[in-house]
Amino acid sequence: MNKPTIYDCSIIEIGKHQHEKGNISVIENGGSIPFEVNRVFYLYDIPGGEDRGAHAHKECHQFLVAVSGAFDIILDDGKTKRTVTLNRPYLGLHIPPGIWAGEIGFSSGSVCLVLASHLYDAGDYIRDYDQFLAYKNGDDKIS
């Protein structure tokens, strides 16, 4: 079983093309990020003090971008925790499967863009932290 750690989560510079009329950043399959994108969604209008995420995936990779504002992501591999701040629209965080992640501390007007390797599948989510720890310790029977 693949047991990624928080150190397998990486900040990736998307890059930006500067222009006097505004900047553009491009994410393309086969180039910018280490997986094919099959689903895109975004989080917005998050009330101050609210948290999002707080789950892990069994197979789905995610790539998060703060397209507006800023927020922190707490990464947890079951042994070690790390906090990453996203606050630039040309930087994103790759989160491989098997990492517990939660987004916190959203600034006013923040928008979190999420690109995912898989379509939504409720069975891919681990939403209970104790079940996540069991999964990381090799219990493949987690549903």
Mean of residue pLDDT?
92
Which strands sit side by side, in order, in the main sheet? Answer: 1-7-4-9-2
Largest β sheet strand count, sense and barrel closure: 5 strands, antiparallel
Helix percentage range: under 10%
Unreliable stretches: none
Oligomeric state, counting identical vs distinct chains: single chain
Helix and strand pattern: EEEEEEEEEEH
Q: Taking Cα atoms only, what radius of gyration do you get, to the nearest Å?
A: 15 Å
Strand content: 35-45%
Shape: globular
Q: Which class of secondary structure composition applies to the elements?
A: mainly beta
Number of helices: 1
Distance between the termini: 16 Å
Topology:
Layout lengths: L9 E4 L25 E5 L8 E6 L4 E7 L2 E6 L4 E6 L4 E5 L4 E5 L6 E6 L8 E2 L2 H8 L7
